[in-house]
Amino acid sequence: MHAQKPTSSFRSPLLPTLAACMALLVPAVAHAQDDAAETAAARTLAVDGVKLAQSEQCSEAVDKLERAEKLKHSPIVLRYLGECQIKVGRWVEGSESLRKLLREPLPEGATPALEQAYDSATATLRDVKPRIPSMKITVNAPHDVELKLKIDGKDTPSSVIGVALPADPGEHAVEVTAPGFLKASSQLKLAPSGTATVSLELRRDPSAPLAAKASPAVVAAAPAATAPPSAPAEETTPPPHGSRTARALSYVSYGVAAVGLGVGIAFGVSASHDEQALRTTCPNHVCPPDQQGALDFARSKGTISTIGFAVAGGSAALGTVLLFTSADPSPKQNASLPKRTASFRPRAAIGFGNVSVGADF
């Protein structure tokens, strides 16, 4: 690195001749491996652009320098391009051009012109970097809306929303749109080193058609319109809780019937034994006064036996009805079976010397 004091493009003197401008391009041209025609075109554009930049005609120089850089990269062209972009107010682009230059290491044995390009880019970037303004864009909209952002009429990725975005000083127009919403826009003016926040709110467009997207429920239901009818839902429905309760009650009824049957048999047998013992003392069913109590007791046993058989018959009938009604036949079976009302009529009779029980369904 030479000892010459760094100077920026804002103060650099004009090169005296076109030959000197061409000499600045020698490092880039010497390493060119592309087509000769492109190299020649890049050299012409670079020479013209550098001459315009050194003459402080940056508005005309930027276009030529940009095209020259696209055709053939040159650190010196990039230095003049970045400095001119900053001069015409494109601070963000200009600083990025200078950063790109400075990211390249200075080659060994660099010419004084190349060293001067690095020194000037460093000084210019150091001066402009802290003065670049920024703006922060916020958008109030549903989270699932697809936003489209434009800054100064140029499409900008929506990912910059919510972050500090470096911008050139001056006036800017911010616009955001989304399907089904009205456009939201705002104007702002940025001063050097300034910051600003742009808050936009998307409002639904009342005249916008309904979204064409079908909900998952509609998509899932669409094939069902042409599909054959499926089996009735009742066939796969589990038995209701009431059927299990009825089945349990039927078992309880059978238990009561068993107890009633046992009582009926026990008292019936006892009454029969008493009847056999009274036949000798009570001929023709006429007992003497001293045997009248035994006769009444035998008749009470017969009554209890009758009640026991009646309870047994009724409980058995009730258990049978509950057992059949707890079944869960299919809807088709329910439709084909005739509706009947289950009923029973217990019958019990006791006479002197015999006991009978029965029921009618």
Can you characterise this structure?
This protein has 361 residues and is α+β, with helices and mostly antiparallel strands. It has three domains: 18-130, Alpha Horseshoe (Serine Threonine Protein Phosphatase 5, Tetratricopeptide repeat); 134-201, Immunoglobulin-like (Sandwich); 240-360, no CATH class. It has helices at residues 18-24, 26-30, 36-54, 58-71, 75-87, 91-102, 112-128, 216-221, 241-278, 292-325, 331-336, and strands at residues 134-140, 148-151, 154-156, 164-166, 170-177, 184-190, 195-201, 345-351, 354-360. Helix 5 runs antiparallel to helix 6 (91-102). The model is unreliable at 1-26, 28-32, 213-227 and 330-337 (pLDDT under 50).
Which descriptors apply to this entry?
4-stranded antiparallel sheet, 361 residues, rod-shaped, Serine Threonine Protein Phosphatase 5, Tetratricopeptide repeat, alpha+beta, disordered N terminus, Immunoglobulin-like, 3-stranded mixed sheet
Helix content: 40-55%
Q: What gross morphology would you assign?
A: rod-shaped
Q: Separation of termini?
A: 121 Å
Order of strands, widest sheet: 3-2-5-6
Number of domains: 3
- Strand count: 9
Alpha-beta content class: alpha+beta
| Helix segment tally | 11
Task: Give the low-pLDDT segments.
Answer: 1-26, 28-32, 213-227, 330-337
Radius of gyration: 54 Å
The topology string of helices and strands comes to: HHHHHHHEEEEEEEHHHHEE
Query: Quaternary state, please?
Result: single chain
Please state the average pLDDT score. Answer: 77
- Estimate the strand proportion: 5-15%
The major sheet is characterized as: 4 strands, antiparallel
